[in-house]
């Protein structure tokens, strides 16, 4: 197991018990709202009997990932569909965490609408284990949607103001499951995954290894997020921050390579809004959710200098020093 470098800071994150959210426990519901406002990043305990199948499914998905990512690149490239929500992406497509470096991870993406439709376009490895992916994606979706409904309830939102009114089933959406593999890399190369806020609504992240870091709103330091068995890590994305009228925080995070003799695997389920809804972005412009998604993916691939000129990558969450000329 990788460990963070000696003396590293570890983020003191709160824990929400999903079993108690399912039971509609008022204290846990209020705590969920408070943590979305304060940090926008928390541990989610998934060990309650009614949900822990998600942990068993996750372990099987990790096994499948180890086999899939061990395939030669040209075989995996057959799953590349030139899309950001579907199929394979090779290492180096976006920026790494160090200036000038490219990213150090490859991904396989399984789009929620294609999974629901059992589309023949799904990657062959997913079609071979359709039962597993159906179950896992279904449970990830249930967890994120349940938290969304709970947040609307606690805020006493009504009608079209409710968050789930922007996430109706059957509407076109960029919601997707992303399987990430970070091959062992020379720490000095500075590859990893560049700092960013997530594009969508809520991210459910499973990771068994160190490497993920976050920056608390307004802070300069980066804290490691300790992997914790039986738990996922949840973070608020730009879209939910915008839909909340910027009341919720969306922490800046990144993945740094940590000296290790093993590869790193992580799984992210990105719940995103309907493509056609509108919100006000970081600069106060009215944009469509799909437009924000597509533009931000273009930004992920731009050189660091260009990324630094805009608040898009960091969702407006980075402490910015104003230099007065
Ligand atoms: O690999 C990880 O732990 C985090 C990945 C991530 O932040 C992302 O894909 O948005
Ligand atoms: Fe992320």
From TrEMBL:
Gene3D superfamilies cross-referenced by the UniProt entry: B-lactam Antibiotic, Isopenicillin N Synthase, Chain
Domain (Fe2OG dioxygenase): residue spans on this chain: 172-273
Swiss-Prot/TrEMBL keywords: Iron, Metal-binding, Oxidoreductase
PROSITE patterns according to UniProt: FE2OG_OXY
Presence of keyword Signal: no
Pfam family of the protein (one): DIOX_N
Example GO molecular function: metal ion binding
Family membership noted in the UniProt record: Belongs to the iron/ascorbate-dependent oxidoreductase family.
Name of the protein this chain belongs to: 2OG-Fe-II oxygenase family oxidoreductase
Organism: Gymnopilus junonius
Organism lineage: Eukaryota, Fungi, Dikarya, Basidiomycota, Agaricomycotina
């Amino acid at each position: 197991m990788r460990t963070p470098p000696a003396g590293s800071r570890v983020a003191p994150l709160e824990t929400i018990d999903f079993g108690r959210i399912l039971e509609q426990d008022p204290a846990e519901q209020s705590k969920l709202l408070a943590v979305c406002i304060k940090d926008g990043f928390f541990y989610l305990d998934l060990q309650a009997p009614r949900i822990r199948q998600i942990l068993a499914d996750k372990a099987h998905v990790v096994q499948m990932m180890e086999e899939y990512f061990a395939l030669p690149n040209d075989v995996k490239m057959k799953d590349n569909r030139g899309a950001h929500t579907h199929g394979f992406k090779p290492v180096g497509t976006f920026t790494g965490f160090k200036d000038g470096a490219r990213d150090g991870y490859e991904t396989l993406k399984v789009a929620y609408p294609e999974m629901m439709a059992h589309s023949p376009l799904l990657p062959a490895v997913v079609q071979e284990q359709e039962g597993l992916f159906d179950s896992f994606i279904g449970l990830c979706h249930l967890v994120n949607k349940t938290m969304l409904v709970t947040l609307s309830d606690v805020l006493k939102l009504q009608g079209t103001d409710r968050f789930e009114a922007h996430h109706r089933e059957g509407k076109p959406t960029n919601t997707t499951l992303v399987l990430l593999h970070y091959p062992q890399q020379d720490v000095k190369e500075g590859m990893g995954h560049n700092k960013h806020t997530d594009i969508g609504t809520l991210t459910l992240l499973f990771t068994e290894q160190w490497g993920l870091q976050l920056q608390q709103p307004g802070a300069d330091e980066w804290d490691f997020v300790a992997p914790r068995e039986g738990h996922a890590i949840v973070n608020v994305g730009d879209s939910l921050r915008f839909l909340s009228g910027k009341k919720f925080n969306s922490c800046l995070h990144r993945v740094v390579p940590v000296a290790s003799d093993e590869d790193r695997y992580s799984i992210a389920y990105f719940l995103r809004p309907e493509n056609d809804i509108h919100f006000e972005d970081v600069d106060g412009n009215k944009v469509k959710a799909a437009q924000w998604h597509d533009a931000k993916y273009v930004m992920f691939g731009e050189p660091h200098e260009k990324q630094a000129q805009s608040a898009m990558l960091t969702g407006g969450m980075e402490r910015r020093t104003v230099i007065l000329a």
